[in-house]
Automatic annotation (TrEMBL):
<dbReference type="GO" id="GO:0003952">
    <property type="term" value="F:NAD+ synthase (glutamine-hydrolyzing) activity"/>
</dbReference>
<feature type="compositionally biased region" description="Low complexity">
    <location>
        <begin position="1"/>
        <end position="27"/>
    </location>
</feature>
<dbReference type="GO" id="GO:0004359">
    <property type="term" value="F:glutaminase activity"/>
</dbReference>
<dbReference type="GO" id="GO:0005737">
    <property type="term" value="C:cytoplasm"/>
</dbReference>
<dbReference type="InterPro" id="IPR014445">
    <property type="entry name" value="Gln-dep_NAD_synthase"/>
</dbReference>
<feature type="region of interest" description="Disordered">
    <location>
        <begin position="1"/>
        <end position="46"/>
    </location>
</feature>
<dbReference type="InterPro" id="IPR014729">
    <property type="entry name" value="Rossmann-like_a/b/a_fold"/>
</dbReference>
<keyword id="KW-0436">Ligase</keyword>
<dbReference type="Pfam" id="PF00795">
    <property type="entry name" value="CN_hydrolase"/>
</dbReference>
<protein>
    <recommendedName>
        <fullName>NAD(+) synthase (glutamine-hydrolyzing)</fullName>
        <ecNumber>6.3.5.1</ecNumber>
    </recommendedName>
</protein>
<keyword id="KW-0067">ATP-binding</keyword>
<dbReference type="GO" id="GO:0008318">
    <property type="term" value="F:protein prenyltransferase activity"/>
</dbReference>
<dbReference type="Pfam" id="PF01239">
    <property type="entry name" value="PPTA"/>
</dbReference>
<comment type="similarity">
    <text>In the C-terminal section; belongs to the NAD synthetase family.</text>
</comment>
<feature type="domain" description="CN hydrolase">
    <location>
        <begin position="276"/>
        <end position="548"/>
    </location>
</feature>
<keyword id="KW-0547">Nucleotide-binding</keyword>
<dbReference type="InterPro" id="IPR003694">
    <property type="entry name" value="NAD_synthase"/>
</dbReference>
Length: 987
């Protein structure tokens, strides 16, 4: 029988002097298989033939080196080498054995050169050094040498947990060996703190750095010499260290708002001062800690806040947006097990919170389905999965989830352990099910289900469900809200019942789209409560008190009841919580009042654009913690529109602050770096968060330069005027050196290719200069955020992207593109709205100006970007083609047929002219579709947005002539022209 403590060795090969040696075919095939490395042959007794033993042991060690190189994380190989090394101590003289151990340490160093974070190699190294330090190998301390080795490895790769961990274990030994004084210990502590702070400035997201930082800081609050290497630290010194560290981490928090380790460190270190001073936490420290918890826990904190607000308003039933626990915009993170795990962890903490007691709560998360959870006190009643998934436009739900396809059917869902520990439940029903309380019945449908022909709320309503909850993540799009709201109101107007619609609001992690709120409570087709369509509030709660008898009386008609009687039953789960209150309680309450119908609130499309852009720009700015935006202001309509979007953002931020929304003020102070900033005008905000620059050339006019300057002065932003001719000339000289060729404008005799190249050099230089200015703007102005780079804004519109009328990597390339899904016509309408609503007469000069990029010599005459000669199509025509191509899904042939009827009365547009316009558009579209692959991310606001990332998935390598379609159209044009001619002859 083998001893469980015997050392591992190879199981095959002849034995020499008590060893198992030579190579094994079995090992070469499967070195990571435990049976290959069985505990087995042991050494009978040491031999006198040291040289023979040395040769055998070296052969054994050499044999495993190739295996180790191929399988560097195989425990069995490392353990076998340990066994072989131990034999050297038993069989060889100490000096000879030590040489082998030192060679092994050198091999380990080579392994760590291959992978400096291989924790197997680090653990092995610790075993080697412990043995090399032992008296058996004539050793002495290697602590200082190993400490230097960790420094070398950390300098190579900061993200090296094993190196930091090894360093932490070596420091106490080094101090003892040095007989370090208190001053020596303090100096070493400061050196290590500086080292890890420098590392954190480079990689604040690295958990291994925070581990070492935590190790250092644990020494500050401990006076136990066994737990601290600075035990004699004076309290004032400890306080100073904590202050310095907190200031450092708070600076990191300003620059990196989405790294949880920063907030966790602050949560841990803020109480240190009270521990050092032996006092309780101060009230301001408690407030700061509470704020940090909110930042750290994100969605959980917002969900609990919404529950608290709802409860304060007297609500007994609460619902929230779709997938509110993890967030809707996780994209492929929805496929990760961690997302499911952490979602359930959040649910466990929410339902454990006392605020949830005696309240029915509807939460949204994924549980390997798309689900809605209904929770009471500390019981989960049911899981209702989504039955219709959104899979068009911006949505790809079937990539991440599977719809429930078993109507009126339930199964058993076994709850996660973390939930079982909280509720004591093992399983709950999952499926197409409703919840019955003693006084009503509640059903759920989720977002997309509302838009389907046979939506669940219809058959649930016919089955007696009186309250329907809809958790939604419906994205913003101009003029879309009315359609969505009509669907909801018409559903209950026809069927009766209460419809509680909760939509997400603002920007999620998937920042190409945003959600436009407008959550509602509707009863029998009448709107009882409606939230704002766009808001900067992190949590927005609406409530309504409803007389459920109004639903029952509304449904008391024969036709509805006959259809209801025909419906198959839906499975029901019973719940003991009563949601109804007696009329006496309502009458006596100061908080509760029966809610009455109100008018549906819909924004004017241009006000909707203003609010959408304002919220998007502010949330993007504050979440990236950037100090502001940079915009190349050309004096044209597009860049002026973007500048006014930012000005609109400042107006919305100011209004939010004036309404007492403290989160907005805190974010503004963080973004600007001014802790006491209290703006009184939008211009004060603009003077900090927008830097515009007019980048002129010899081809630019005073007209555009002055327009840009006057607009910047009006909105109060920082403004610069520069000439980029030197940069353009330098690039042209580089081209000349490479090609021995100088391009010329066409007006000077150059070809079309030369003319285009000279324009593109100017355009691309503007992008490069924009990024440089954005990077250095705060530094040059010595602001509180000096060193932080501003975000660059693009001013390309959707029509230009559709037609491809832009240069790759010119000012259409930036960090984000606020105008990227807005048409030229809508941009003009927005400026007209601004002129009237904000009383800005200056705006009319941009509307009336002839649009031009001013890239050609002034001697070429007035250039118009809207002329057919320059672009081939008008912006109005591009909008029409964009809608037909994307929204109506028409190819060239169908588009041509549609326009024959729609443009029939258009002067000068016969079949041939219409055909020419159609083929011209599709030719330009096909030629330039490749440009869509690098479009700057923009907020989605139009249904014909050509965003190549997700909304408009098309090829970008086309046969640009569309030969089949062109031939078919040409044949039809000829046939139609012959019929027209025959008709005229007959007349």
């Amino acid at each position: 029988m083998e001893s469980p403590n015997s050392l591992p060795t190879l199981t095959t090969s002849p034995s020499t002097a008590g060893f198992s040696s030579s190579s094994s075919h079995e090992t070469q095939c499967s070195p990571e298989s435990p049976p290959t490395w069985k505990p087995g042959t042991t050494v009978d007794k040491p031999t006198a033939a040291h040289n023979q033993d040395l040769e055998i042991l070296k052969t054994e060690l050499l044999f495993t080196i190739p295996l180790l190189m191929n399988h560097p994380k195989c425990y069995w190989i490392w353990d076998h080498r340990v066994w072989a090394l131990e034999q050297t101590i038993k069989r060889l003289p100490a000096k000879m054995a030590r040489a082998i151990w030192e060679e092994e340490l050198a091999l380990d160093s080579k392994m760590l050169l291959r992978d400096c974070r291989n924790f197997h190699a680090w653990g092995y190294r610790q075993k080697l050094t412990e043995r090399l330090e032992s008296s058996e190998l004539l050793g002495s301390s290697m602590a200082q040498a190993e400490f230097s080795y960790t420094t070398e490895k950390i300098n190579t790769d900061l993200s090296n947990f094993s190196a930091w961990h090894r360093r932490a274990t070596l420091i106490p030994r080094i101090l003892i060996e040095r007989a370090a004084t208190s001053e020596d210990r303090k100096n070493l502590f400061n050196q290590e703190l500086e080292l890890v702070h420098n590392a954190l400035n480079v990689g604040p997201e690295d958990q291994s750095l925070w581990y070492y930082h935590q190790f250092l800081m644990s020494n500050v609050i401990s006076s136990d010499p066994n737990k601290s290497f600075v035990p004699s630290l004076l309290s004032e010194d400890a306080n100073a260290i904590v202050d310095e560290v907190l200031e450092f981490i708070q600076d990191l928090a300003e620059d990196y708002t989405d790294i949880k380790w920063i907030y966790e460190a602050l949560l841990e270190y803020i109480p240190y001062k009270s521990k050092i001073q032996g006092r309780a936490l101060l009230s301001e420290e408690k407030v700061e800690l509470a704020g940090l918890i909110g930042k750290l826990e994100g969605n959980k904190a917002r969900i609990l806040d919404s529950i608290r607000l709802a409860k304060e308003k007297g609500a007994l039933l609460r619902t929230g947006p779709e997938l509110e626990v993890p967030g809707y915009g996780c994209l492929d993170h929805h496929l990760e097990g961690d997302t499911f795990l952490h979602s359930w962890e959040v649910v466990a903490e929410i339902i454990s919170d006392p605020i949830c007691k005696d309240m029915l709560i509807d939460l949204g998360l994924g549980v390997r389905h798309r689900n809605v959870q209904v929770i009471l006190d500390i019981l989960i009643f049911l899981i209702r999965p989504k039955m219709s998934l959104a899979n068009d436009g911006l949505y790809r739900e079937t990539r991440h989830f599977t719809a429930w396809v078993k109507p009126r059917t339930t199964e058993k869902y076994y709850l996660e352990t973390i939930i079982r520990d909280v509720t004591g439940q093992t399983s709950v029903p999952i499926g197409d099910v409703v919840l019955s309380t003693p006084d009503t019945a509640i059903g759920c449908e989720t977002c997309e289900e509302l838009f389907t022909p046979l939506n669940p709320s219809t058959y649930m309503g016919l089955n007696g469900v009186e309250i329907v909850l809809n958790s939604s993540a419906s994205h913003a799009e101009l003029r879309k809200l009315e359609t969505r709201l009509n669907l909801i109101t018409n559903s209950t107007r026809k069927l009766g019942g209460v419809y509680v619609y909760a939509n997400a609001s603002g920007v999620d992690g998937d920042a190409r789209m945003m959600f436009d709120g407008s959550s509602m409570v509707i009863c029998n087709g009448g709107v009882l409560a409606q939230s704002d369509q766009y808001s900067l509030r992190p949590v927005d709660v609406i409530t309504a008190t409803i007389d459920i008898e109004e639903v029952r009386s509304f449904r008391a008609n024969c036709s509805r009841n006959v259809q209801g009687a025909e419906q198959p039953d839906i499975p029901r789960v019973e719940c003991d919580l009563k949601l109804a209150r007696h009329a006496d309680e309502i009458y006596l309450s100061d908080e509760l009042h029966k809610t009455h119908s109100q008018a549906l609130r819909l924004l004017d499309p241009m006000e909707e654009m203003h609010m959408a852009e304002a919220v998007y720009l502010w949330q993007y700015l504050s979440r990236t913690n950037s100090p502001g935006y940079f915009l190349a202001l050309s004096g044209g309509l597009d860049s002026a529109t973007v500048a006014l979007f930012v000005y609109g953002m400042a107006k919305v931020v100011l209004k939010s602050i004036q309404n007492g929304e403290t989160v907005t003020l805190e974010d503004l102070r963080r973004v600007t770096g001014e802790p006491d900033f209290m703006p009184t005008t939008a211009q004060e905000i603009m003077s900090r968060v927008l830097h515009t620059c007019y980048m002129g050339t010899e081809h630019s006019s005073d007209e555009t330069r002055l327009r840009a300057r006057h607009l910047a002065e009006t909105i109060g932003c920082i403004h610069s005027e520069i000439k980029i001719d030197n940069a353009v000339a330098a690039h042209e000289e580089i081209i000349h050196q490479a090609l021995d060729f100088k391009p010329k404008f066409s007006v000077h005799g150059g070809s079309r290719a030369e003319n285009l190249a000279k324009q593109n050099i100017q355009a691309r230089n503007r992008m490069i200069v924009a990024y440089e200015l954005a990077a250095l703007s705060t530094t040059s102005r010595n602001t509180k955020r000096a060193g932080a780079s501003m975000l660059v804004l693009s001013s390309a519109n959707v029509d230009e992207a559709l037609r491809g009328y832009l240069t790759k990597y010119d000012c259409s390339s930036a960090d984000i593109s606020p105008l990227g899904s807005v048409s030229k016509n809508d941009a003009k309408d927005f400026l007209r709205w601004v002129q009237k609503t904000w009383e800005m007469p200056l705006v009319s000069s941009f509307i009336e100006a002839t649009p031009s990029a001013e890239l050609l010599p002034l001697s070429a005459g007035v250039q118009s970007d809207e002329s057919e000669g320059e672009m081939g199509l008008t912006y109005a025509e591009l909008s029409i083609f964009g809608i037909m191509r994307n929204v109506h899904r028409l190819g060239p042939w169908s588009c041509y047929l549609r326009l024959l009827s729609e443009w029939k009365e258009r002067p000068g547009f016969g079949p041939r002219e219409i055909a020419a316009r159609v083929l011209r558009f599709y030719r330009f579209y096909a030629m330039n579709r490749h440009k869509a692959t690098v479009l700057t991310p923009s907020i989605h606001l139009s249904s014909y947005n050509p965003d190549d990332n997700r909304h408009d998935l098309r090829p970008f390598l086309y046969v640009v002539a569309w030969p089949w379609q062109a031939a078919k159209i040409e044949a039809h044009v000829k046939e139609l022209e012959e019929k027209i001619a025959a008709k005229k002859m007959a007349e």
